[in-house]
Specification:
binds S-adenosylmethionine; S-adenosyl-L-methionine; globular; 301 residues; 7-stranded mixed sheet
């Protein structure tokens, strides 16, 4: 068995001494608490192979929550945490007038779960849709871990003394998902962090992302062919068009509703235009992330 000091020095060469010491401490804590009996040596070896730390230790902080993370579901990012907390302050619904929320491409459930956790009890019924069965299972496990109620049979927006979140397996590219999942539009808030990476950006992603996280969570134009790579079609915008059409044609947004969409840092103009032209939403705002990059398009009628 490799000696711990040898592993720490290999980690140091790979990550630099400061990060290596921190990560080593977190992996040690996780190994001590591991119910699967995963050893520290195994954890460090996986890290040295390039696996993301969060998948190894199994959790990731997200606002006031400590969410479970499992491959291949996307690990929630700090920029998503930042705008979710900002949205929580902006909307802040009251239990006297509970709202409904639809999160498309919900992944781990991080966005609706943090909103459900932050908003006052009884003020929101949230739904999350994702095409990945792994993601939906993880979102359910996260709801349970965070103490957010998952309704079993209730559809529609019931008023209760607690907030609810229902993760549902579905494909948002098939507009019939609204009907087949028995969702009851319109929703007061629509959120989404859809896949938005272009094929060209995908090729330059670090291996820790490309080799471990679900490609369906990343690629913004999943159907684009090699021939179309250099064309204007490779802009990572497919999912914004789908969401805009759902809003314009399926009536999924309440008249005074709000849409919050995470974007790639160069996509604000395109996504704003798509929401205006195809979603028929006139009021567009762009939020920056803490690193001063355009990160969210907010759209209202
Ligand atoms: C960028 S990840 C976002 C996950 C999570 N909301 C977050 O912020 O961490 C995009 C998610 O979209 C899901 N997805 C991809 N195509 C989809 C589709 N056609 N219908 C529904 N979900 C889809 C992926 O499975 C993935 O979980």
């Amino acid at each position: 068995m490799p000696r711990i000091s040898h592993l720490l020095s290999s980690l140091s060469s790979a990550l630099g001494p400061a990060s290596a010491r921190l990560e080593f401490k977190w992996m040690k804590q996780a190994a001590e608490q591991s119910d699967k009996g995963t050893s520290l040596v195994e954890m460090v070896e996986r890290r040295l192979c390039g696996e993301p730390l969060q998948y190894i230790i199994g959790t990731q902080p997200f606002g006031s929550l400590e969410l479970l993370v499992r491959p291949p579901t996307l690990i929630p990012r700090p920029e998503t945490e930042d705008w979710t907390l900002r949205l929580a302050e902006l909307v802040d619904p009251s239990p006297d007038r509970p709202i409904s929320l639809l999160d498309m491409c919900t992944g781990s459930g991080c966005i609706p779960l943090l909103l459900c956790h932050t908003w006052r009890p009884g003020s929101v019924n949230a739904y999350g849709v994702d095409i990945s069965a792994d993601a939906i299972k993880l979102a359910r496990d996260n709801a349970e871990r965070c103490g957010i109620h998952v309704p079993t049979v209730t559809y529609g927006h019931s008023s209760s003394s607690f907030n609810t979140f229902k993760p549902l397996l579905g494909n948002i590219r098939d507009a019939s998902f609204i009907h087949s999942l028995k969702l009851k539009p319109p929703f007061n808030v629509i959120t989404s962090n859809p896949p938005y990476i272009t094929r060209r950006e995908f090729k330059d992603l670090p291996p820790s992302v490309r080799d471990y996280e679900d490609h369906r969570a990343l690629l913004g134009d999943p159907d684009i062919s090699e021939d179309e790579l250099s064309s204007h079609l490779d802009k990572g915008l497919t999912f914004y068009r789908i969401i805009a059409r759902l809003i314009a044609n399926q009536g999924i947004l309440a008249d005074d509703g709000i849409v919050a969409l995470e974007i790639g840092s160069t996509q604000a103009n395109d996504v704003g235009r798509i929401m205006q032209r195809e979603g028929r939403l006139n009021r567009i705002d762009v939020w920056k992330d803490p690193w001063d990059k355009d990160r969210v398009v907010l759209a209202r009628r």
